[in-house]
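Exam revision sheet. Question 4 asks you to relate a sequence to its structure. Input first:
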Amino acid sequence: MPLKSLRHALLWAALTLALLGAPSVLALEESDRLWRLGTNAFRDRLYPTAQQALERFIARSPADPRVADAWLTLGKTQLALDDLARAAEAFEHALAFEPQPGRSQEARFWAAETLFRLKRYDEARAAYGAVIRADAASPLAPDAMYGLAVTELTLRRLEPAIASYRGLVQQWPEYALMSQPALALGRTLEYEALMAEATPTAAGLYRAGIIAGGLGHEQAQQDAWMRLGEEFPEHRLTRRALLGLAAIAYKLQHFDESLALARTAALSEDTTVRVEALLLIGEAGLALNRYFDALEEFEAAAMASGTDTALRFRALAGIGAVYEAQRQWADAATAYQEIVDSSSDPALSRQAGERLAAVSAGLQRSTRQDAVDRATAVVQPPPLAMGPAEPPAPQIAKETFPSVVLLLMQDRANKAIRLGTGFFVRADVVATNFHVIDGTAGGHAKLVGQDLQYEVAAVIASDERRDLALLRIKGITAPPLPLEPDRPVAVGEDVYVVGNPEGLEGTFSHGIVSGIRHAGPDRRLQITAPISEGSSGGPVLNKRGKVIGVAASSLKQGQNLNFAVPVSYLLPLLANNADARASASRPREPTRDVTQTGDTFPLETWEHWSR
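Answer key, structure tokens:
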């Protein structure tokens, strides 16, 4: 049972000192005391205490009949602490005993899991296979078969992976993860069959691309559709496939490539394909700041004969975005207003309403500025203060906390593996770092200062290079924080960071922008406000309470060397949010490689706020 109070924690600490530091205090033999302390601490997830007690037990009682179980428990403890090399050694010791400790094949299974996480894939494959061969009736056998299939895929051994998935389907039909491997198996087999046809067809190659895309294998999808273009250059499905390739290039932020592919797709005789291609050309042009070209394509899509109503409103959204980017507030408001008044898509209407409110505020500021300029030209009054006074720091903190969440990400076994922070950028969309969700299978979120937890329902957009992701949280909405992507950030400017370092919710820290750095083609904001483990993904705000960045990383070997991703890099993800919703997915299926450079934390932190 998890510890529930500070009193219990202090009691554990006192007991640890008594048992480890003063053997004569209790009447129990030292080996018994160490064994009980180690196993009980492991049960309660007090892993450092468990590790210390079990190591002493093994060192002082090597002939004790419980030493085999001690090695197994020590290995699982070190695995939980992410001390993978020592965990592998502990499992090797456990495997040397006869009979082996724990449940049937338990030591070998955990050894395989550890080898996979160490990226020693060939050894992991052999270990998983050994579990299955030794005892197919072991309760861990289906997990081992699943691990074997994932390992084969990681090694790009497609046929053995299919065989492993098939074995899982046939031998353990009630396996908890059955829906995932069964679906992947069926679709993978269909893809391979279509690509291997002696006489391929345009429909078959197009279908193969659709299958690969559904499985998340973009390279395989591109292979199928590029082959379609080569073998059937004039077929109508080729234009549709080119549109799909353009969308993939856009997602990867290869905007020039996306433009070229979409322009070819726009030659299609299919009205829907042609209009979607025009929209993609406009969106790529907008991303490249080619506003005139983008506007031209959006207007062509909106006015095309036979355009689907939904596509026309998407074109209007693009027109509004172009005008907004150029600060032509009145024209942007007109486009957004038509969407709000007439669109039947609630998500698009809501987004248009949000943008309408933003551009209306811009229009009001512009009108006020015009009036000030005219008055200044006539009477030359003293300079007027523009906009409201900067709010004090306590007010910024108070207004920000209701829109910030603590994220607890888990692997497929529902084990917590990463802690992070996120903040609402839409009423139901949370922004965070990509590394917070990378390699996870799901997770939960809770608003700062509240007890309820909510499921992370989907990753609706991501940018791995810039370390950004957008999540939808099930069953909760919150006011989005205002973003300020257009205002230049100056070195020396005051900033605030909101995060959850080590699970300490609602931490509000102050600093300055100490530099603007370049990471390849991208920029990073160097700030002095602390970013500790657990704060990744938190908002970085200026003195106006507007978000100017997303907290991302720090250099531990330096002092106050913290970095944030500029909030302007969120805009492409937000602009494509409508499209992203249509293809929203769960966080990545875990590859069991949970050694990503994200925020890790002792599981006691999760225990603390999950109770």
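Marking note for examiners. The two ends are 11 Å apart (CA to CA).
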